[in-house]
Amino acid sequence: MAASIRPRLISRLAVVTGGGSGIGRAVCQRLASEGASLVVADRSVESANQTLENLSRDHKGQEHMVAEVDVAFRSSVENLLNSIQRRYFQPPSVCVNAAGITQDEFLLKMEEEDFDKVVQVNLKGTFLITQAFSRAMVAAGAPKGSIVTVGSIVGKVGNVGQANYSASKAGVQGLTRTAAKELSRFGIRCNCVLPGFITTPMTDKVPEKVISRITSLVPLGRMGDPAEVADVCAFLASDDSLYITGSCIEVTGGLFMG
Ligand code: NAD
To answer: Which residues form the Ketoreductase domain (predicted)?
Structure first.
């Protein structure tokens, strides 16, 4: 974060799923640097702890925690919410859904289980987290709730080898817009970020040949950095976006525009 930017999230409590790696980790770092207390939630406690170790604590009252969660299971999501309420006596007012997986294969060869697995984490997981945390925000009467989901540009345009992933991410957009319509009367905003190709452990799996072909198509001429997605998430979490809900913001370096 540039030193001149004012911290916008002082005294806010934020939960970030998938906070142990890549985009989720960058979001945790950015929100903490803007003054929020962070719940770093991930299936991997070890990687969540690594994120926690480097979070800023420069602002008064900041208190971070790690929580294990598998977003694909309601009981696990409920345990996460309960552990947060026990610790902070309130639900988060910011919730970022960054947990996600890929299981790539050509449509003609894709196993049904691999379709189900990806949809269960990326789409159903986003539903379970969004539902549980928005219910808690409504019950607490907390104003200024902001829920951010992470879709993908491939949810709009498709991608070879990603029938499961692109379907799950298209679903995330529909879910976000519906949640935005239903939750606005409670003061809760819901928006989606659509990253393009961002350098993280997820894209480390993509063959070099494919990466250089994609990069050549990106108008800005490079892959994105997780911090550049986190910038947009922080904007959506903050009061700088108070009149924005139901939007899907592309963070793609211009890839597949228009
Ligand atoms: P990543 O693999 O680096 O991080 C994903 C994190 O999610 C990991 O820490 C993992 O442990 C966690 N996770 C996976 N399944 C989980 C589950 N069931 N419950 C809880 N945590 C779980 O990936 P990333 O690139 O940082 O991706 C973050 C999000 O951004 C994902 O939703 C991904 O689909 C999306 N995205 C990434 C890109 C990209 O180019 N990297 C592009 C578009 C969208």
So the answer is: 12-198
Residue spans of the domains in the chain: they are 13-198+227-249
- Compute the distance from residue 20 Cα to the ligand 1 centre, in Å: 9
Quickly name the fold that domain 13-198+227-249 has.
Rossmann fold (3.40.50)
Which ligand 1 atom lies nearest to the CA of residue 18? 7
Is 55 strand, coil or helix? coil
Q: Quick check: helix, strand or coil at residue 241?
A: helix
Beta-strand pair 188-195/37-42: unpaired
Atom in ligand 1 nearest the alpha carbon of residue 21: 9
Which residue in 115, 127, 133, 165 is the catalytic one?
Answer: 165
The residue whose C-alpha atom lies closest to atom 44 belonging to ligand 1 is 152
pLDDT in tens, the chain (258 residues): 444 568 999 999 999 999 999 999 999 999 999 999 999 999 999 999 999 999 999 999 999 999 999 999 999 999 999 999 999 999 999 999 999 999 999 999 999 999 999 999 999 999 999 999 999 999 999 779 999 999 999 999 999 999 999 999 999 999 999 999 999 999 999 999 999 999 999 999 888 898 999 999 999 999 999 999 999 999 999 999 999 999 999 999 999 886
Mutational pocket test of ligand 1: of 21, 153, 172, the residue with most ligand atoms within 8 Å of the beta carbon: 21
What b/e readout covers 152-179, taking b as 16+ CB neighbours within 10 angstroms?
Answer: bbbbbeebebbbbbbbbbbbbbebbbeb
Question: Pocket around ligand 1: residues whose beta carbon is below 6 Å from it?
Answer: 17-18, 20-24, 42-44, 47, 69-72, 98-101, 121, 125, 150, 152, 195, 197-198, 200-203
